[in-house]
Input
Amino acid sequence: MKLILIRHGETKGNEDGIYQGRIDLSLSERGKDQCIEVKEKLKNIKVDKVYVSPLKRAKESAEIIFDKENREYIEELREIDFGLWEGLNYKKISESYSEEYSKFLNSYKDFIFPKGEGFNSFYLRVSKVIKIIYEKSKSEETVAIVAHGGTIRAIICELLKMDIDGFYNINVYHGCYSLLSVYDDMAIVEEINK
Output
């Protein structure tokens, strides 16, 4: 299976540097332009199925990039729930939640966001859904996922057998796609952040 992973275009929240998580923001004008660029880059690739996070920024990105007929919205593709940190920037978090922020920086894998989701449960959620998507796809199909930076990082970690340890070793840019070839026992990164 060919797998195209697309991070949604930018939102005002991204431009302001806030943790968005489950906050349901629309694309900014820049984000819409990024998606138009992705659509142009992918115009010669036949995509058989598109799976999308139900959050507005991902839905709007998918609507710009792909035709309607092959889209399926999947709850498990949502971004991690940052809990009380949602809507805050790094500076505000480090000031208001200094102890928790220090724990996060020292051991993100075991961290649970205050009133939010834990990294391990987030990773498990995303790992399960990518396995389901792979199992119901044919080897010759091209599948696209439109989701979030954290979700895409988790998918790449799972497919490359990096586990959660490699999560922050991967940069995923807004309004860009990455292409992987996925097989039963391995995956190969063909393109990243195009």
